[in-house]
Design brief:
With 134 residues, the protein is mainly alpha-helical. It has one domain (10-125). 50% of the residues lie in helices and 10% in strands. The model has no long low-confidence stretch (mean pLDDT 81).
């Protein structure tokens, strides 16, 4: 089975940031490429038939790419923040350290899943009646 293409690339992320694309073979580029692959895998795991819906035109590739870029940017921010100080106590100085976010490097929020999920018509969920003939 062929590996599907990533839904987002390092170029997409750096374009949104208006930043230079890290050079091939650099640690920064490897990190960015890995996060893009993780975001693509997370979207495919959480969104129904994303590739088929893009191919059929029922889901915008631009919208998918936008959500994936947002996921990668959030992951980069989590990596950059790492651990942060949440409080200090006195008279003895003590600092509590907590992770900046969840343990997952790349994660998908409920709002992001909803943005890529198929639209379900309200009429399909409404009440209806079926006349029974005797």
């Amino acid at each position: 089975m062929a590996t599907p293409p990533t839904l987002v690339t390092a170029t997409d992320v750096t374009k949104l940031l208006a930043a230079d694309l890290p050079g091939e073979g650099t640690p920064e580029r490897a990190q960015l490429d890995e996060l893009c692959e993780q975001a693509s895998a997370e979207i495919r795991a959480r969104v129904v038939a994303v590739d088929a819906r893009i191919a059929a035109g029922s889901l915008s590739a631009v919208r998918v790419r936008g959500v994936a870029v947002d996921m990668v940017l959030a992951a980069l921010e989590n990596i950059e923040l790492g651990f942060r100080s949440t409080g200090e106590t006195y008279p003895e100085i003590g600092t509590t350290q907590v992770a900046a976010a969840n343990r997952l490097t790349v994660e998908m929020t409920a709002a992001q899943v909803a943005a890529l999920s198929p639209v379900v018509s309200d009429a399909a969920n409404g009440m209806y009646s079926v006349q029974m003939s005797s």
